[in-house]
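Hey everyone, long-time lurker, first post.

I ran two proteins through the pipeline my lab uses and got sequence/structure pairs for each. Pasting them in order. The first:
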Amino acid sequence: MTHALIREVREADREAIRNVVAHAFGQAGEADLVDRLVADGDDVLELVAERDGRIVGHVLFSRLGVETANRSFQAVALAPVAVDMEYRGQGVGSVMIEEAHRRLRLAGEALSVVLGDPAYYGRFGYSHERAAGFSSDYQGYALQALAWSDAPATGRLVYAAAFSAI
């Protein structure tokens, strides 16, 4: 694994983050999503991986609502996670996600949802079975959830407005 410093984002990192995310996805859509989530104040936790003074990875968790018949519940959505092509397969993404999970649990977050490859995100404890009871525009096998404590297993997932633009 590549040794990288995992830290919270600084304002001076914005251009480097945009470049890493756009290159990792081969398009600007996810980079635009990051910019909009941050501009709208919907970011809950945002970390970067830095190596030799260079940003090589980025992960963002945004606010996600869960609406049930009786109440609303706050959760987080993992999206996106990006690693510079040169550093892929070296554990950078895993270290960022694990550190983010640690911080989110300490902050009292109870539920995280992700839309992605089950083989990858399953390594972190995400599962479709945990997300199957939620209604969502993104419901399907790739919708997965991870609960750290008592959290609803049903309800409507309400993503930040920025997601409707992608």
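...and the second, right after it:
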Amino acid sequence: MAKLDANSTLKRLQNRYRLVVMNEDTYEEVVKFKLSRLSVYIFLSTVFVVLVGLIIALLVFTPLKYYLPGTGYGNIKQRRQFEALTYKTDSLEKVLTFKEQYYKDLHKVLKGDIPVLDTNKLELPKVEYMKE
């Protein structure tokens, strides 16, 4: 495998290229740019940093932050309503699971899938009473 030399990589980044935009009908040059890979990387990195900065500023300095969930902002009343609804749904889920289990067990009993327990065969410990 060929090793990349740091000097050749730097030279490749500094090689100059020409970007020409031409009119298709007349083949006249409309715009031309002299670019290098390094200048393109710097330009794209700058655009990325500026866009990230603008988005962060938009979220920090405008009321949009109130609409983002999980940011900690919002109305106290809405938060309390959310917590109350969360508790209510949790309790409803528990009730629903208990009722489902009850209906499954009832269905088994009605079908006869559960063996009948014979209480006559139970061996109970004998208790001796002391007479006075």
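Reply from user beta_strand_b:
Welcome! Quick read of the second one: Strands lie at 16-22, 29-36. The mean pLDDT is 85.
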